[in-house]
Amino acid sequence: MNITKHITLLLLVFATSLATAQVSFEAKLSKKTLGVNERLRIDFVMNKDGDNFNAPSFDNFTVVGGPNQSISTSWVNGKRSFKKTYSFFLKPKKRGTFTIEQGTIEIAGQTYKTSPVKVKVTAAVDKPKDPNDPSFIADQSIHLVAEVSNTNPYLNEAITVVYKLYVSPNTGVDNWREIDIPRYNDFWSQSIDVKGLQVQNGTYKGEEYRYVVLRKTVLYPQKTGKLNIEPLTLDISVQVPGSQRDIFGRRVMRSASKTVAAGNRTITVKPLPEENKPVGFTGAVGDFDFTMTSNKNQLKASEALQIKLEVTGKGNLKLFNVPELTLPSALEVYEPEHKESVRTTLSGMQGSISDTYTVVPNYQGKYPIPEVRFSYFDLKSKRYKTITSKDLVVNVTEGPNSASVPISAEGSTNATKQQVRSNGNQFASFKTTSNFDSIASENFFKSALFWWLLALPFLTIPIAIFIRKHSDQRAADVVGNRRRQTQKLARKYLSEAKKVIGNKDTFYNALERALHNYLKSKLKIETSDFNKDKIQELLRKKSVDDNTITAFNALLKSCELARYTPFSNVEMQQDYDKAGHVISTLDKQIKR
Fold first, then answer.
1. Co-location of 561 and 516 in the same domain
2. Could you tell me if 75 and 156 lie in one domain?
3. pLDDT for position 434
4. Which range has the worst mean pLDDT, 35-49, 242-256, 338-352, 400-414?
């Protein structure tokens, strides 16, 4: 029985102490230092409703306003919060450092006291601030802050800048607009989307505030030394409590406009250490992995394989190059295809970048692909690391043997020249005599030729009528004319390609030249240096439809694939016919 009483007593003491610990009552100053000609505002704030509030005596100050009482209740994440405030406006009587004594309040039958606070009063200032003025209240209640994750990073190390707008509980914000957006000189920057503005509770300089995150940006410094981060500037319309009250005793809110800026921030960027820096280092900073892979280990000569060099991990992926691939001279290699799969979060870039090489062997044999080294600076260990790929061996099973290729006569050093000797009759081939026959004269008048020439104009009249009629019929034949125009353009631009159908490499080289020559002739520009995307953009500007552009690009792609892919004679003939049709269609659409 006694044990039960003790337990009950302990529970009551614990509950009472818990309730006591949840009560907050404190004094907050609008500023801790002010001029003798300025005004001071002091708020006595509690989180539970209380009675019998007693203010301190305010020695060395004159009360020019108050007490003003305000009550606010809010719900955040399903939890109710309560705040009751007594506000006073004070005028200092003289210069010096003064202590405002404790205020008291009764809450749930217990008396709570604030801690004494100190105020320093200086000489008069040029522009005294009235704590009852809406602009002054807005200045004290709203703050824009740029929070930088790291002010002393390495070169190419990611840092984040988060812009937060802090608003005091008694102040409301109607709207804002950006006046000046920071330009991040000497940085690679990436903005992170802020999906919805969520109001959160926090503290600013030790006081309770609400805040929202307006912007998030990831920066990679590209220079060493002191770099400046420009401020973000906002124009804000705010609602602040005034000195007047409505019929219910609530403070009347007044509007004010305020321009706030997240002041300039300076960071000091450290250079990467020179000690032990690898020879092949290209600026990679972070945590990475590196691989070299091939889609084939065995193939025939003139077939193609792909070798992929890939860097994965977290760091400045878009700011360095993948190591280059070195191959034996017997392997023909084309320009690599670069791919990036990178996403940027607040922690920086992560994902992968790769270069894929298309390789075509010319002779049979086994070809070792030498290892490739990738070096980066590891931020965790603060030192350089090098990853070496595994060796690859390409086995070419069929094809010509490189040792059996004959040396051309032009390259032979054993060739000898024979001396040409004269026999003294070097002009024997020239004729020095003639065999001219005389032409007998005859009378042309009334000869057969005379009568034929006389009748010829009359004979040509029905022929001319027939030709004219046939010409009109051809002009009316739209389908036939279109076919003939296609054949004419094909003969004009594709004549060289038609002659070499059956010889894959020569045919597709000629076909590619013909396509570019047509555009060069039609558009009066040089297109040989254009890629497919630029050609597509160029043709769209000339009102060419997408189907024709797709067909044109498909032909160019066939020309590229022909370098390392076998094509039959039938496919060459089909591509030749398609080229003639595409050129004819382009000719009509560009004329529109």
1. yes
2. no
3. 59
4. 400-414
Distance in angstroms (rounded) separating the CA atoms of residues 489 and 495: 9
Together in a domain, 302 and 261: no
Residue matched to tokens 């000629």: 510
User: Is 80 exceeded by the pLDDT of residue 358?
Assistant: yes
Residue 154 DSSP one-character state: B
> Which residues 6+ apart lie within 8 Å of 530 measured at CB?
538
Half-sphere exposure of 547 (CA within 13 A, CB side): 4
Q: Which domain holds residue 79?
A: 22-128
Q: Are residues 109 and 150 in the same domain?
A: no
CA distance 432 to 190: 91
SS3 readout for 300-361: CCCCCEEEEEEEEEEECHHHCCCCCCCCCCCEEECCCEEEEEEEEECCEEEEEEEEEEEEEE
Neighbours of 37 (CB within 10 A): 16
The CATH number linked to 219 is 2.60.40
366 assigned to some structural domain: yes
- Give how many domains the chain has, as a whole number: 4
Q: What is the DSSP letter of 270?
A: B
* Residue (of 87, 89, 82, 91) closest to 62 by Cα position: 91
> How deeply is 313 buried, as exposed, middle or buried, from its count of CB atoms within 10 A (0-12, 13-18, 19+)?
middle
Residues 6+ apart with CB under 8 A from 473: none
Q: Pick the residue with more confidence: 14 or 577? A: 577
Q: Structure tokens of 240?
A: 């602040």
pLDDT band at 355 (very low <50, low <70, confident <90, very high): very high
Q: pTM for the full model?
A: 0.48
Closest CA relative to residue 148, chosen from 223, 39, 29, 230:
230
Tokens of 1: 């029985």
- Do residue 33 and residue 149 come from a single domain? no
Q: How many CA atoms lie within 13 A of 572 on its CB side?
A: 22
Q: Span 73-81, mean pLDDT?
A: 70
Task: Return the sign of the alpha-carbon dihedral for residues 373, 374, 379, 383.
Answer: positive
For residue 259, what are the contacts with CB-CB under 8 A and spacing of at least 6? 179, 233, 234, 235, 236
Whether residue 420 lies inside any domain: the answer is no
Domain end: 349, 380, 396, which one? 396
pLDDT level of residue 411 (50, 70, 90 thresholds) = very low
Inform me whether the pLDDT recorded for 438 exceeds 90: no
Quote the CA–CA distance of 131 and 118 in Å, as a whole number: 18
Residues 141 and 265 in one domain: yes
Instruction: Decide if 469 is inside a domain.
Output: no
Smallest CA-to-CA distance from 387 within 311, 273, 317 is with 311
Per the domain annotation, does 462 fall within a domain? no
